[in-house]
C-alpha cells in the first residue's frame, strides 16, 4: 500500500512538472483588445482566457469564443508575436493590402454592446478583413479584402437587421488605419 501511495505522489508530481513545462511554451496574448470584436478587454466583464495551439487568447466575452472557434486562423492573423497588432501597408488611394475602405455613418450606436454586435456581424462577411466601430462618431469603418466589394444595399440590410439606421456610406481615400487613429483621437 505504501508503494502505491508513493507511486501516486510521484505521478502527481510528474504531471504537475509536465504541465508547468508545457505552459512555458505558450506565447502570451500581446493585445489589450479582443481579437474578435476589437472591444477593450475587461469592458464586458472578466475576459475569457484560453490557449489555442501555443498562443494564449483573450476575448471580451463568451459569445466571441463561438466566432473564434468558427475560424481561428482569421483571428490569429491579427496577432504578430512581437506584441503588437499587425500593421498593413497602405497606399495613397485609401486602399491597404486588404482593399477598399468603407465608412458607414450609423444612427443608434450607443453602447459597447451595440458596437460588439455590429462588429461581429460585419466580421463574419467573407469580403471584410477588418471592422472598427467608433460610438462617438457613429461610424462603422470597414476594410474589404483585396478585390472585394460590399454593395450598399447589403450594408444597409445588415445595419437595419441589427436594429440601426444607415445614414451614409462613403469610400474615403485615407487608409483604414489612418481613419481609425483619427477617429480614436477625436473621440477623446
Q: Explain this structure to me?
A:
The protein has 188 residues and is of the alpha+beta class. It has six helices and six strands; from the N terminus they run H-E-E-H-H-E-H-E-E-H-E-H. It has helices at 2-23, 62-70, 72-76, 112-123, 152-161, 176-186; strands spanning 48-52, 55-59, 101-107, 128-134, 139-144, 165-170. A hairpin with a 4-residue loop joins strand 4 and strand 5 (139-144). The chain is elongated, with a radius of gyration of 21 Å. Residues 16-22 and 81-97 have low confidence and may be disordered.
Strand portion: 15-25%
In terms of per-residue confidence, which ranges show pLDDT below 50 for 5 or more consecutive residues? 16-22, 81-97
Order of helices and strands: HEEHHEHEEHEH
What structural category arises from helix and sheet content?
Answer: alpha+beta
Amino acid at each position: 500500500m505504501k508503494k502505491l501511495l508513493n507511486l501516486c505522489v510521484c505521478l502527481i508530481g510528474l504531471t504537475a512538472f509536465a504541465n508547468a513545462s508545457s505552459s512555458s511554451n505558450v506565447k502570451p496574448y500581446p493585445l489589450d483588445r479582443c481579437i474578435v470584436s476589437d472591444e477593450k478587454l475587461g469592458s464586458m466583464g472578466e475576459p475569457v482566457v484560453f490557449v489555442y495551439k501555443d498562443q494564449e487568447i483573450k476575448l471580451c466575452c463568451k459569445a466571441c469564443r463561438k466566432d473564434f472557434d468558427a475560424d481561428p486562423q482569421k483571428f490569429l492573423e491579427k496577432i504578430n508575436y512581437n506584441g503588437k497588432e499587425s500593421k498593413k501597408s497602405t497606399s495613397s488611394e485609401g486602399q491597404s493590402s486588404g482593399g477598399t475602405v468603407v465608412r458607414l455613418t450609423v444612427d443608434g450606436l450607443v453602447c459597447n454592446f451595440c458596437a460588439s454586435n455590429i462588429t461581429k456581424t460585419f466580421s463574419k462577411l467573407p469580403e471584410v478583413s477588418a471592422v472598427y466601430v467608433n460610438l462617438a462618431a457613429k461610424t462603422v469603418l470597414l476594410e474589404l479584402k483585396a478585390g472585394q466589394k460590399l454593395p450598399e444595399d447589403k450594408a444597409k440590410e445588415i445595419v437595419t437587421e441589427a436594429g440601426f439606421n444607415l445614414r451614409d456610406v462613403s469610400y474615403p481615400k485615407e487608409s483604414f488605419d489612418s481613419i481609425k487613429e483619427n477617429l480614436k483621437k477625436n473621440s477623446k
